[in-house]
Amino acid sequence: MGLTKRKDGWYVEFPVIDDGKVLTLAGGTPGAKVKRWRVGCNNKTVARQQEAIIKTKLLSESMVSERVQLARMRFAQWALEYVEIEEVKRLRSYRERCQRITAVLVPFFGKTLLQDITAKEVEAFRQERREGASCGHRQCGSQHPQAHAEARHEAGFDYEECGVFGHSSETQERSQSSARP
Asked: Quick check: 154 and 110 in contact, CB under 8 A?
């Protein structure tokens, strides 16, 4: 384990135990899984420093588990992160995918914690869609554009005129101002 060189840079690998709250270094412990972190540089010296930082956090049990972070994440927040992934942006179906997320999935699942989305929830969503609630909005049972706009706004989404999925206007203003020189 430890430091590994790959095409795109240096990676750090350690066997860890994830108890759902923190990650702990687990050398030779049954049930341990190998966790890999991308260091983010091509310099071996800097990569070794990052390896030491990660190992220290693991030994001191101060590295927070990803499961804790996901436990607090709502569907709408996950959807925002999903549509910002470069691989997703390159898809030919990106616009349609964003429209579907904005118009159908966010109104239904937007405020739901990811951990609370179960097979039963998905089946309820599918059943509503089959019964003619084409919008998927729990409260309305049919298409009500104002209710959808409010649900998307509460979740941090705006559906622009051009049909491209976007962040709320406030988020867009921040990203545009930070992109300016």
From this structure: yes
Backbone angles phi, psi at 73, to 5 degrees: -85, 130
Domain boundaries, the chain: 2-69, 72-179
Outline where DSSP puts E strands in 120-172: 157-159, 165-167
**Pick from 33, 24, 28: nearest CA to 55:** 24
Q: Report the C-alpha gap between 12 and 3 in whole angstroms.
A: 5
Contact, 17 vs 31, CB < 8 A?
A: yes
With 0.70 as the threshold, say if the pTM is over it.
no
The sign of the CA dihedral 104, 106, 111, 113 is positive
Strand partners, 36: 13
Dist. CA 162–CA 83, nearest whole Å: 17
Per-residue pLDDT tens digits for 127-150 = 988 886 545 444 444 445 555 555
Neighbours of 35 (CB within 10 A): 20
Whether residue 28 has pLDDT greater than 80: no
Task: Give the separation between CA 46 and CA 41, rounded to whole angstroms.
Answer: 7
Coil, strand or helix at 40: coil
> Which strand (E) or helix (H) includes residue 17?
strand 9-18
Please name the helix (run of DSSP H) or strand (run of DSSP E) that holds residue 10, with its range, or none. strand 9-18
